[in-house]
Amino acid sequence: MDIFIKKAVIHQFTPADTELVLADKLLNITPKIEEYLRKKLERVYSDQAKTGIFDLENAFLSRLTDDLLATSVDIAQAWREEFVLSENQKTNDLIFIDFESNGIKHFAFMRLALRENLAHMGTEVDNPITLTQNNLPGAGSPPDEALIVNLKNHNYLLIEKRIKHNGAFLNYFSDHLLAVQPEHSAQKSIKTLEQTAQKVAASFNQDDFQFQSKVKSAIHKNLEEDQALSPEKLADQLFDQNLTAKLSFIDQVKETIPNPVKLDQIDTSRQLKKFENQKLSLSNGIELIVPNNVYEDAESVEFIQNPDGTYSILIKNIEAIQNK
Question: What Pfam families does the record point to (predicted)?
Fold first, then answer.
């Protein structure tokens, strides 16, 4: 991913007095810091991120200016007013970044909950290992919360966590700080599509292993070819012979996912890998992993239903077998 970090600033929220420790200058970005921040940003472009577009009249969008330091102070203070209600507070670093991706300017805000870790501090014989405070999480883990805004088209990616307040859980980040209603994450949307397809198929006595394999194959094909999932297109592929089932699937999906699931903003490699193979667990203990293109090829694999209701699987034209 092409990410060029231009500026960054870090403020801190402390739970002891629920106040902000505000930086008065931009961060000096060394190569190690640049690598750390870049890896954190890359983790936001994931199937766990919610997506949306800011309206031009959105109040949060109007906070974004060319002065990163002033913008970060303004947003950090607005964030604190919302987050301070949380019943489970930790020390958090609030990181604000100006960066370019594929030549387009972006703004990012990440919240990182700091950790306590054991560290070997020296050669003291009595106690060389001590508990250190305010340790940043590893570069490979996603931020606790994050927002990335494309400053050209105002598309955004959002990773958020609910806070608990007065016994209720609140999406304080999107509902209050941003005042937006984001689309579901790709991960949640795909799970909804799978579950709805199986529910509809079950109501028509079609939900067997072959239908479940058909769902996985259709999702993989659409992700690979279109970087999007359309309920109508999936319905045509899954229920092509049953108009009632097709319409039922579309109606039920749109109750939760009113718009096609677009994945052009995120890294879809995780979902593609998940759906690229058919994984079959047989009642006799045998487990099979079959690539989609092989599974769908009648010259390679054939499923035979026997008169007694059992199944036989015929695997054809194998040139070599290895024991791994």
Answer: NA37
